[in-house]
Amino acid sequence: MTLIRTLLAAAASLAALIAPVAAHAEDAPAACPPFEVVGSGPDLVLVPGLGSPPAVWDGVKDSLAKDYRVHFVHVPGFAGRPAEGDPATLFARIEAEIIRHLDCRKVKTAAYAGHSMGGFLGLVLAADHPDRISRVVVIDSLPFYPLIFDPSLTPERTGAQAEATRKALLGMDEATFAGSQRAGVQMLVRDPAFHERVVQWSLNSDRASFAAAVYTVMTNDMRPRLGTITTPVTVLAAANAYVPRAQVEKLYTDAYAGLPGIKLVVIEDSYHFIMFDQPAAFETALREGLGA
Fold first, then answer.
1. Coarse DSSP helix, strand, coil percentages of the chain, rounded to the nearest 5 percent
2. How many other CB atoms sit within 10 Å of the CB of residue 181?
3. Most buried one in 191, 206, 254, 260, CB count within 10 A?
4. Nearest residue to 42 (alpha-carbon basis) of 107, 105, 138
5. How far apart are CA 46 and CA 39, in angstroms?
6. pTM to 2 decimals?
7. pLDDT, tens digit, for every residue of 27-85?
8. 69 strand-pairing partners
9. CA-CA distance, 211 to 171, in Å (whole number)?
């Protein structure tokens, strides 16, 4: 819910002893994208949000690997992975890379879960590749991010602001950018134990890729395409004292009105990184969304 504020300001050892994971990480064929694959079972693709690495899923990694063959996407330019190509084409390239990965691993269909920007990408994939994505879990993401500010906003009305934000992010020196991230993380993660980790992910990201991703989510509206999505979609949304359940339910219900059969699950007492603030409730909701 609060990711845009940061965008505009700048986002199991004991268990292993009891029940070891059935499969270790697979070696990727030379032609495949560099995505870690672990576990066995139905295929599941996990995609992190803005500036985040696959480590955002560490809290559920071992557990999910007992029931799924999990594919961890690392977006180029984010959190240590080197940038590739024109930053302006980042979204199109990572969408194509995910499909190429599925082809390379001989996966016909896979379930998908994405956090924030990764959730938005899940809607795009479901619309573009309905034969490859069996179900989608969107984690704290809207089909058009600027709706957080004003339900009447359109890409045309946010274009100038998005471009100004992109330029501002690119123009910040390292100290200023770091300061903006440390201020913004206070609204993204309730648990202070995770603050510096999330900040460092942003600082270790390619700035041009980071800024381009911000611009993309501020100017691309999936609402007109929601009616074309036939894949089952579950949306997990965070609610807290600052953004109460009633407000969250209205915002998300209105935003996803064009998607028939959507299931909305509101998780209380959480900020944007639900997997950190409410790990047990998060895993339960994620598994239910995946049809486990």
1. 50, 15, 35
2. 25
3. 206
4. 107
5. 13
6. 0.90
7. 666 688 999 999 999 999 999 999 999 999 999 999 999 999 999 999 999 999 999 99
8. 39, 43
9. 10
Query: Which of 12, 61, 13 is CA-nearest to residue 37?
Result: 61
Identity of the amino acid at 169:
L
d(CA 68, CA 122): 18
Give the number of residues written for the chain.
292
For tokens 């619309």, the residue is 127
Q: Which CATH architecture has domain 3-289?
A: 3-Layer(aba) Sandwich (3.40)
Cα Rg of the chain, angstroms:
18
pLDDT tens-digit readout, 229-259:
999 999 999 999 999 999 999 999 999 999 9
Amino acid code (one letter) for 281: A
Question: Do 237 and 267 form a contact (C-beta atoms < 8 A)?
Answer: yes
